[in-house]
Design brief:
The chain is α+β, with helices and mostly antiparallel strands and about 100 residues long. Helix content is about 35%, strand content about 30%. The longest helix has 18 residues, at about 30-45. It has one domain (about 5-85): 2-Layer Sandwich (YaeB-like fold). The protein is built from two helices and five strands; from the N terminus they run βααββββ. It is globular. It starts with a strand and ends in a 12-residue tail after the last strand. Helix 1 packs antiparallel against helix 2. The chain has a five-stranded mixed β-sheet with strand order 1-5-4-3-2.
């Protein structure tokens, strides 16, 4: 069974995004978390669903939000290296493994 693991900084980005959206509107942070969770569930079913994003990475966009889940697949594990706000500077997460 494929499982999803988040890089610590990717997890911090996820939580920061949820806090930001919750501050914008009630329950919007929960909606953001649910959208990312849905993306991760789809990746567990279809690991190659995301578009190639460099030599080893793939990216799948988060519906309703300007975010992308950037990940790579290692055997039975999907490693999320960034929950990237697409309006931030590009490739800021490049040094993560």
């Amino acid at each position: 069974m494929i499982r999803v693991e988040f890089h610590p900084e990717a997890e911090a980005e996820l939580l920061a995004g949820a806090r930001y959206y919750e501050g914008e509107a009630q329950n919007l942070g929960a909606d953001f978390l649910a959208a990312v969770e849905s993306v991760c569930a789809r990746l567990c079913e279809f690991p190659d669903l995301g578009h190639p994003f460099g030599p080893r990475l793939r990216r799948l966009l988060v519906p309703r939000f300007p975010y992308g889940v950037i990940y790579h697949v290692r055997g039975e594990q999907i490693r999320v290296v960034a929950v990237a706000n697409l309006h931030r500077r590009p490739n800021y997460w490049h040094g993560r493994r």
